């Protein structure tokens, strides 16, 4: 009578059973990753559904190395700082939502993650005593910045159009963004 190993295969097939078990583990891992990715896409409505924080403009509410899960505008509406003050809505320890956008709508620009302060219509001053908005959009600012993005080099003179927005920040996972930044 032949002895059986832990996997149930005979001792003569040890190498063969090792590769079969390894293949099963790899397939199982890929299925789990695909399920998690599918859930994240279904939740967020965009791919990739996350960004990593690289900078200090959102301190103290978001820190360098945080991984932030975002949702598309198809799934959520943007609540500005101004609206949040009025109705008590806070996200990341301050009024209003934090959005992720491509400055000037340019896909080659690095995404910016800043708070939507208020909405301006075309022709309205972008801030008290400021120039008129060339088009409607959000005035944005980092929680650790003194200037609006529109009065700095981030999005000079251009309110953020909704079509420039990649997503609205939902929650952050501390330090996990360091891993994402290294990988990609």
TrEMBL record:
Its main location: membrane. Keywords: Membrane, Transmembrane, Transmembrane helix. GO terms for cellular component: membrane. InterPro entries: LexA/Signal_pep-like_sf (IPR036286), Peptidase_S26 (IPR019533), Peptidase_S26B (IPR001733). The keyword Membrane applies. It is found in: Membrane. One of its GO terms (biological process) is signal peptide processing. The chain crosses the membrane at residues 26-46. One of its GO terms (molecular function) is serine-type endopeptidase activity. The keyword Ligase does not apply. This is S26 family signal peptidase.
